[in-house]
Design brief:
This protein is about 45% helix and about 15% strand. It has helices at about 1-10, 20-60, 85-100, 120-125, 135-145, 175-190, 215-220; strands at about 65, 70, 105-110, 115-120, 155-160, 200-205, 225-230.
Length: about 240
């Protein structure tokens, strides 16, 4: 009888850890906590990025209403991804309208970035690469209200039509388009203080037309300088 009683009242092995499940439970809770903190951090960062971009754009570029500009001090430099926002595009178009040169300036949004197209008639005399003083106000406005408010690289591209150049200054449209791009770049860097580290110039001649060179109007459209605000340092 005593043996049977001893079997039912056998004491537990003191070496067995009865609280081991608590360690596993604590590890699980720790991992869950880290997971939810990470999810919360990611969602909060996205919201803050959007708000920061919105505030920077509004403060940096100003507010345009009924053709008038209200200047606001720049709070902080914008970063390269900001130019893809709808707010930037809207204010960019309003800035171009404020230049009061709509027939000679165009804006195009592409995957590579924003292209501001300046007509030859605004910038140069026929066959010349010297920047006309009449275009200074337009270039100044674009620089002050756009280029100097962002940190993106800017590529200045020169383009011509397919009519061969006939003067002693340039041997071909390649030289003419390149000289025009370089002179616009120099004006932006020297007069408007756009950082030269962000600027590059290239001449494409007649190789990248916007329309066929079969009419006077289409050839005029192809004679241009493009300011390409790129979204990537490699573009």
């Amino acid at each position: 009888m005593n043996n049977l009683r001893n079997r039912f009242h056998k004491q537990e092995d003191p070496q067995i850890n009865q609280s081991g499940w608590i360690t596993t439970f604590n590890d699980l809770m720790t991992q869950l906590t880290v997971f939810f903190v990470l999810i919360f951090s990611l969602s909060t960062t996205n919201i803050l990025d959007i708000q920061s971009a919105r505030i920077s754009l509004q403060a940096g570029l100003g507010i345009f209403e009924a053709g008038n500009k209200t200047s606001v001090g720049l709070m902080e430099p914008l970063t390269s991804y900001d130019i893809s926002t709808e707010i930037f595009m809207k204010q960019l178009e309003e800035t171009i309208e404020a230049v009061n040169s709509e027939p000679d300036i165009g804006v195009l949004y592409t995957e590579k970035g924003i292209i501001i197209t300046l007509d030859e008639s605004l910038l140069f005399n026929s066959g010349s690469a010297e920047v006309n003083p009449e275009s200074f106000n337009a270039l100044d406005s674009i620089s002050q209200n756009i280029l100097n408010k962002i940190s993106n690289p800017v590529r200045v591209e020169g383009h011509t039509d397919n009519v061969p150049i006939m003067n002693d200054d340039f041997a071909s449209n390649w030289e003419l388009s390149t000289a025009r791009a370089v002179n616009v770049l120099k004006y932006l860097a020297d007069k408007d203080n756009v950082s030269s580290k962000r600027l590059s110039a290239v001449g494409y001649g007649e190789s990248k037309p916007l329309s066929q060179n079969n009419t006077v109007k289409s050839r005029k459209k192809n004679r241009r300088v493009d300011l390409v605000i790129t979204t990537d340092e490699k573009n």
